[in-house]
Amino acid sequence: MTVSSSIQQKKKIFELPYHKDQLEYWGPVNHVFADSFVTMGHSFIYQYFKNLDHKLLKSVFSSFVEMVQNVSEYNEESFKENYPQSYLSLKDGGDHIYINTINKIKTEDKLSVQSIFEKAFSVPEEGLQAEYKRLLFEGKSLGLIMLRKLINASVDFTFSENDEGEIWLSVDLKIRYGNT
Fold first, then answer.
1. Domain assignment of residue 53, given as a range
2. Rounded to whole angstroms, how far apart are CA atoms 34 and 83?
3. CATH assignment at residue 99
4. How far apart are CA 25 and CA 40, in angstroms?
5. Of 58, 78, 145, 157, most Cβ neighbours within 10 A?
6. Domain assignment of residue 11, yes or no
7. In-domain check, residue 67
């Protein structure tokens, strides 16, 4: 199977068509690559969305960085030198910015990763600021709470299993910015 057909097959599984005005990558993600992709994402965000309010622009970029770094950190901690094929995408949806990551999760990590996500998503909206402060003072990870706190945004996650029994985590962030 060619690389191109392999990518198309994976994109079909996750219903990921090609789009214009999109920065997209499917392949191994480590820290060095994540830094490069974040730099490309910075240019993309500031090129496409420079008319946005500066505060919103900063929150979009911060969210993008958080999502890419989470994939990179998990891959480096869990897979060492054999990084899985992960998916990273940033695109303009007309009046939304979409950020999507899909990452392979080790079978033995599924329950703990799922628990982290379920706990972060069980916090009621009115309790997000208090949870953010609690995690900050305890030195815990703020990423999911930070994403949930975004104004005019929605974040969702799903776990899926392919035919080979691999577990995949998809995180989707949609930020409404209006027409620019």
1. 20-176
2. 12
3. 3.30.565.10
4. 11
5. 145
6. no
7. yes
